[in-house]
Design a protein that fits this description.
The protein is mainly beta and about 240 residues long. Helices cover about 5% and strands about 30% of the residues. Strand 3 and strand 4 form a beta hairpin. The two termini are about 40 Å apart.
Length: about 240
């Protein structure tokens, strides 16, 4: 029944209720650098995760002795305790020419390679898609690669040749593929400021200058880190 209120009094607002509340696991970090592996000896962070056949699979970003970023693989049955972790990287961004750039360093402490994987399963074609930030020829761009779910689960790392989604000469991060088609088209969430945007495409086979036009936020504000004033679909 509606709450009665006395004449001349204001009804008190009820405090907002929260839905799901996330809390850090007591044993943290879940994945730490391993000094015995030179490719992940320095940092391990910013993983993507996907649930397949009752197990959580991680692709995590690792930086090693050479300052290059790569993706490592780990798996967990409950999301808290790592049951399996491979000793070698499972993905490297192919570069015909390595050009060091200060942007890739400020993006997370590496001098090149793939960063920040966002993993999405599209069951209609039995494929796992990965969008990630690519330090490509001295620029920070968004790339897309894919692997069949069968190959992924059997650890046959037969990745599709990556394609670049964002235009050259611009800095972009944190794009993600929506996990199902909308009206028969793929949806890609992009842009980090001022709003998250969506681009609908008929195919994920990008070619040549087939880039997604996205607003990338303009110049950095003086005295503030970029991650303090921008947002993205794939990160808070």
């Amino acid at each position: 029944f509606p709450e009665k209120k006395e004449k001349g009094t204001k009804k008190k607002k009820k405090p907002a209720t929260l839905g799901t509340v996330f809390a850090k696991a007591e044993s943290n970090p879940i994945i730490s650098p391993r000094t015995e592996n030179d490719w992940e000896s320095w940092q391990t962070f910013n993983p993507g995760a996907v649930l397949l056949l009752g197990k959580i699979h991680f692709l995590y970003r690792a930086i090693g002795d050479d300052g290059t970023s790569r993706f490592g693989y780990a798996a967990s049955s409950d999301g808290f305790v790592v049951d399996e972790r491979l000793p070698r990287p499972v993905y490297e961004h192919p570069e015909t020419e390595r050009v060091f750039n200060v942007f890739s360093y400020f993006s997370g402490g590496s001098w090149g390679g793939p960063e920040d994987p966002r993993m999405v399963v599209l069951e209609e074609d039995n494929t796992l898609y990965i969008t990630y930030t690519a330090c490509d020829r001295g620029e920070l761009r968004v790339a897309l690669t894919a692997i069949s779910i069968e190959d992924f689960l059997s650890k046959k790392w037969k990745w599709r040749e990556p394609v670049l989604l964002s235009p050259p000469g611009e800095i972009h991060k944190n794009w993600i593929l929506f996990p199902e088609k909308i009206n028969g088209r793929y949806a890609i969430l992009h842009s980090i400021k001022p709003d998250i945007r969506v681009e609908y495409v008929d195919s994920l086979a990008f070619h040549n200058a087939d880039y997604i036009k996205s607003y990338h936020g303009g110049p950095l504000q003086k005295g503030r880190r970029w991650d303090k004033w921008v947002r993205g679909a794939g990160a808070p």
